[in-house]
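Suppose you are handed only two things: the residues of a chain and a line of SMILES describing flavin-adenine dinucleotide. What would the bound structure be? This form records exactly that question and the answer produced for it, so the two can be stored side by side and reused later without any lookup.

QUESTION INPUTS
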Amino acid sequence: MNNTNQSSAIQQSENLITIIGAGAAGIGMGVALSDLGLTDYLIVDRHEVGASFLRWPQQMRFISPSFTSNAFGLLDLNAVTYTTSPAYSLQSEHPTGAEYARYLQGVADLYQLPIQTGVDVHKIQPVDGDHQPCAPDRNQGFLLETSQGSIYSHFVIWAAGEFQYPNLEIFPGSEHCLHNATVQDWANVPGDEFVIIGGYESGIDAAVNLINLGKRVKVLDDTAPWDLSSPDPSLVLSTYTMQRLVTAQATGRLELLTAGVESVQTVEGSGYEITLLDEDGTLQAHTRPILATGFIGSLDRIANLLTWHPQSYHALLTAEDESIRTQIKMARYEYRNYRLAQ
Ligand SMILES: Cc1cc2nc3c(=O)[nH]c(=O)nc-3n(C[C@H](O)[C@H](O)[C@H](O)COP(=O)(O)OP(=O)(O)OC[C@H]3O[C@@H](n4cnc5c(N)ncnc54)[C@H](O)[C@@H]3O)c2cc1C
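ANSWER OUTPUT
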C-alpha cells in the first residue's frame, strides 16, 4: 500500500504538524509520529521520497556500513526506524543512493506515511494573529507558502537536509569548476586527467571512482584529511574510504597534495590555471577542476526563524531541538551535522 501522492494543488490545508522533507530525517520523524499514535500530520517534499539520495552520482555508496544487527538489539547504522534494516531490505553493506531511496520508500509504504511530493515550500511565516489572510483566526503556528498552495500548520518540523545547495562561491573563479554534487555518472565526465579540490569524503570518493575508470587524478587539500587521525568519524575519512584510497594509490595514478587553492582562471586554448595559497605556485588542468568543497545547509533558507550563535554560526536550539526563537523543530539525520550543532 502506497500513501505517497504526487501533488495536485494543495490549495489550502491545515495540519497539526507538517514535516518538510521526505529524506532520511523526514521519513524517520514520520515513523516516530506514527508510533506516537498521531495521524494529523503531513510530510511534503519538493521532489520525491529520498530525493537527495536519488541524485547521488551513480557510483557513490554509503560510507557508513549496514548490518542486520537488529537481531542483537543494535540498530543498523543506516536505519531510520528501530525495526527496519537497509542491510536486510537491500542486501547491501554500502548501498548506493538509489538503493537507499528504495529503502526509504519501503519504510514510507510500510507505515503508510502521509506524503505529498512535488510540494516546494517557499516561505514559512510564523502566525502572530495579525494580517494572516489564510489563517485569520489563528494566533500561533505557521503559514507555509508552497508551490501548490498554502498550508497552515500548528507545528513545523524542518527536515530539508544539509546537502541541497552546492557551495559554488569558495574562491575567485570557482564558478569555472564542476561541483561533485552535479555529477550523475563519473563515466560521463569527459577527460583523462582531473584535479579535485577538497579531500574529504566527497573528494576522495570522486577520486576513487575516477581512478576506477582508469583516469589520473590529483587531489588538493590544505588540511590533508588523508593524514588525520581521530576516533570521531565525523572528523576524519571513514574506514571504507581509507580502504578504497589505499587501493587507488596503488595504481600510481593518484596524487594527494597538501595545498590550498587561492583561485582558478580559464586559460585560452589550454584549460585552467589553479593558483595555490601561500605562494605555492600554480597547477595547470586540462579538464574542469572538480569542486568537492561542500554545501550550504538548508537552514539558511529559514534563517529568520532561528537565533544564531554569534561566533560559531550554528542555530541555537532547545533540548527538544526546537528553535529558541520560534517553535520550528529540527530533524537531523547525520552525525556530522549533529556535531556541528554542538
Ligand atoms: C558525499 C556524501 C556521502 C555521504 N555518505 C553518507 C553515509 O555514508 N552515511 C550517512 O548516513 N550519510 C551520508 N551522507 C549524508 C546523507 O546524504 C545525509 O545524511 C542525508 O541525506 C540527510 O538526510 P536528511 O533527511 O536530513 O536530508 P535529505 O536526505 O537531503 O532530505 C531532505 C529532503 O528535503 C527536501 N526539501 C528540501 N528543501 C525543501 C523545500 N523547501 N520544500 C520541500 N522539500 C524540500 C529535499 O527534496 C529532500 O528530499 C553523505 C552525503 C554526501 C554528500
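WHAT STANDS OUT: The chain has seven helices and 18 strands. The chain has a mean pLDDT of 90.
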